[in-house]
Amino acid sequence: MLWLCITLPQLPLEALQCEQGERPTLVTVLEGNVRSVVCCNPAAERIGLQPAMNFTTALAILPEVIAMERRLTAEQAALERLATWAYQFSGTVILGELFADLQRARTTALWLEIGASLRLFGGFRKLIEQLEAELGKLSYSYQLGIAPTLEGAALLARTGVRVAITTPAALRARIESISVHSLNLDPWITQQLQSVGVRTVGLLLALPRDGIAKRFGPEVCNYLDRLTGAAPDPRPTYRLPPKYHARFEFDAEIHSTEALLFPLRRMLREFVGFLRARDTGVQKFTLRFVHRDTVATVIHVGLSMPDRSSERFLTLARERLEHTELPSASVALELSAETFAMPTGLNVDMLSGATEHGEELGHTLDRIVARLGENQVHGVKAVAEHRPEHSWTTAAAEDRRPPLDFPDRPLWLLPEPKPLQLSGMPALTGAERIESGWWDGGDVRRDYFIARTQQGAALWIFKDLRDGSWHLHGFWS
Amino acid sequence: MSASRAETLEQLARLCRNGREGPPPRVEPSGSASLDAVLPGGGWQSGTIVELMPVSDGIGELRLLMPALAKITQSERHVAMIAPPYIPFAPALLRHGLRLEHFWIIRAQSAADILWSAEQTLRCKSFGAVLAWPSAIRDREVRRLQLAAEAGSSIGFVYRPPSAAHESSPAAVRLRLQADAVGQLNVDIVKCRGARAGMSLAVGGLESAGRQRLTANT
């Protein structure tokens, strides 16, 4: 087993917002009756604010700092979305625990077993490159560590050791000089160790185990064994859900469509990670913009063919969003998809021009549908029916085979026959009687003619045989 | 001597075209020999915008394009009508030889949506021809459509009111359409790259088979 650990030191902040704000922003947590800073954005760090600082101190430094409350549900949701995304790189993904305490708030981690994926991705470097490229686009701050044990990989990630360690012996050699403060131990234990002169992991590992157990409890020994690989470390693996449902809770209400694009972009990229993991695509997904006091706005995004490009998803979603009036600010965004299908473009020969042709047609029509609406783009087909207004219908692309041979018809049909006031009888040609439809109540008895206007236009008119009135029904254009 | 010089120039022109714009434009014959004779390239040329200005509905303004549209759909390329004034009647389209699987109607409402849809479809390589009925169009927008048509090597047919014939436009071909009392379609060349403006052509022979029969009965 070879574990890649991704730690997310800024998750408390980044789970709540994904754009790097210009204004100093921090996340706080109340422990006992002291409010402390959990993490801060770069703008806040630049003016001297830092994690673990007392919030009162932070306020003294910058009274107008934007302070958010830590929200574990948002972090859990973000971690799960990330786990789903990570599945594209590994079949074994383990979710780390979320710790409510201040000390470990910045140690949230996610593990991927990469030993089995190395060959699939063409080696170590390629796998990491691809993973980092994708991870960077999701706009999370992260650190990576690679080791044969879960705790070992996490320790390397936390301490910023960017060297892949593949054997327990190498791991032990590598971590000996690391400070005990970096270990995933209760802070009072590391404090105690420090005070008796046990400053490094190497010194701690050299101590007799029963002594450690007696003094600090058996959990410490157990942790050290799992760290070095002396004891197994079984944990439940994360299962890929059959349907996709992701939620992003915002810290503040988002008012502008433009600002909604940040979380939307991240969510679509995570979604595409899920699709890659499942090796599939979607033809339809749903966005739900949750508002505080009104019913959520639901946008269905449909594609003409299955796809898994986050850029195309974003283009379509954006187009729809720009033409949707959100009733009020959004407090959360949900993305869900239930049915999946293999993207057509991917499982066929990429050199085949016909596919690219079809694909581009699909993308173009999708964009237009996204902007104009579902029913505004369609094909037509002819229907075997005598009544002209029923002899055609709108149709989907698959279903437009001509049914029968038709009598000659004008190219333009009016949506509704238009009553005509005839002053004199025009020259009429091409008489055709159409009588039909008594069985469904829409019966017609008409004599159709072609009438020529002075301008040379050819009109398709009929006399309604039931009341003798004249109507215009089309143009021989 | 001068003939070989002309050939060399033609070759050079072809070389420049090949280097810069890729393959030479496709040309769809209009179905009327007299019209093809004046149209640049000898027919409806891909990568161009053609403005059609019929004096009224029902004079053959759509029939004029049917041979080309039918051929385009038969060669697996698509045709879109954007904001048509009436319903393009499927039985008639079939009779004119259109393959309806490759025919699309886009019901854009606003002027901006109509032009945007026209641009999107023209730019898409899958479309061979796009017919649009914009409520208004400015020179700048015609140029945009022109670029889109070049990018997608498609033909853009833009229908405009007859009054537009008095305005100028960057479209490569501008045709005013009218019919005489017996329904003969006349095409006035308002502008045509490489041909003399002011010419008027009688265009016949574009009717579908059934209609020819009907008119013959009169």
What do these coordinates show?
The complex is a heterodimer of chains A (477) and B (218). By secondary structure, chain A is of the alpha+beta class. Chain A folds into 4 domains: 3-16 and 71-228, 2-Layer Sandwich (Alpha-Beta Plaits), CATH 3.30.70.270; 26-66, MutS, DNA mismatch repair protein, domain I, CATH 3.40.1170; 244-343, 2-Layer Sandwich (Dna Ligase, domain 1); 405-475, no CATH class. Chain A is 32% helix and 26% strand. Chain A contains 14 helices and 18 strands. Chain A has helices at 11-14, 42-46, 55-61, 72-86, 124-137, 150-158, 168-175, 187-195, 201-206, 209-216, 218-228, 257-278, 310-322, 353-372; strands at residues 3-7, 25-31, 34-40, 66-69, 93-95, 109-113, 143-147, 244-254, 282-291, 297-307, 330-337, 377-382, 392-395, 412-420, 428-436, 444-452, 458-464, 470-475. A 5-stranded antiparallel β-sheet of chain A has the order 14-18-17-16-15, with no helix packed on it. A 4-stranded antiparallel β-sheet of chain A has the order 5-6-1-7, with helices on both faces. In chain A, strand 2 and strand 3 (34-40) form a beta hairpin. The longest helix of chain A has 22 residues, at 257-278. Chain A starts with a strand and ends with a strand. Residues 346-356 of chain A have low confidence and may be disordered. Mean pLDDT of chain B is 84; it is low at 208-218. Chain B is 35% helix and 23% strand. The longest helix of chain B has 20 residues, at 2-21. Chain B has one domain: P-loop containing nucleotide triphosphate hydrolases (Rossmann fold). In chain B, helix 5 (111-123) packs parallel to helix 6. Chain B has 7 helices and 11 strands. Chain B is α/β, with parallel strands linked by helices and 218 residues long. The interface between A and B is large, with 57 and 62 residues. Strand 14 (412-420) of chain A pairs antiparallel with strand 5 (87-88) of chain B, so a sheet runs across the interface.
